[in-house]
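Appendix B, record 7
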Amino acid sequence: MIHLAHLDGYDLDADTEGPWRELVVLRPGLLFVESEQRRSVVYHALKDHLPAGAPLLVTTLTEIPKFKGMAPGALAWARARLGTGR
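Structure tokens (predicted):
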């Protein structure tokens, strides 16, 4: 599964350990999360890496969101996991 996480400006490194195979930093505070775990498990794992009370949003993606200006290679990464999204 691919989840989209918004950390409200907080940063996590792509090599942060958690119940995921991969974190892709789209821009500071915005991540793709590839995990076999449910959204709730990913949410709580991310929450544990943030300061107490930090805003956090996690959603599971079923298609590629429309975006521009994100990290190089992010669109190709998403297409490889979610299809072409055209």
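Remarks on this record: The domain at 2-82 is CATH 3.30.70 (Alpha-Beta Plaits). The beta strands are 2-6, 22-27, 30-34, 57-61.
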